[in-house]
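To: structure desk
From: M.T.
Subject: fold request, one chain
Message: Could you run this one when you get a chance? Sequence is below, nothing fancy, just the single chain.
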Amino acid sequence: MNGLFFYIGLGAGLAAACGLRPFLPVLLIGALGSAKVLGIGFPSGSWHFLQSSWWLLAAAVVFALSYVLQILLGFAPMVDPVSREPRRDPLAAALTGLAFGAGAVLFAGVLGAHGDAAWPGVLGGLLIVALAQRLAGPVVVGARRRLAEKGPRDALTLYLDAASLLVAALVAVLHPLGYVVVAALVWLLLRRRSRSGEKYAGLRILGR
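Reply: Done. Structure tokens follow.
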């Protein structure tokens, strides 16, 4: 699948996957690029590092370290982008930064590697990661607060990793699915806001 339409779909889908968790999308696309399959590749140039061994090794090490910090030290894997609490968990804050960085770099890399301007990918990647985090963040943070036992709380991170890998794999196989993923995120966010508005309206009526 060649053409700007397909590359934008791939980059957008990868950014959405990074908004959930950044590591497995980075590792998957790097491995596919190295193997030069599914039309994915980063030939020699500014974006070649996305499929280089040192980059993939670094991503794998940080991925493993994030689990060690979460399981052994009890750090949270995601901040709530809605509550904006003043004291944020250091691991969650770091992973949020990595998600934005990975989403922007992958989107830009997909465009730049095929000779297109990379800067729209940076902007698009940042916006899509923000959208994904805005939707998933409160859900994950709320679920962690409701779960009393540590094991189930930590398992939520596994689910996020699985979801991010699934999204990345789907858009890698069929690039235009990235548009569907972004549209679904927008729809879900608008639907949640609509429900929240109806809830608050009902509370105001009851309070009169």
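Reply (cont.): Residues 4-207 form one domain. Let me know if you need anything else for the meeting.
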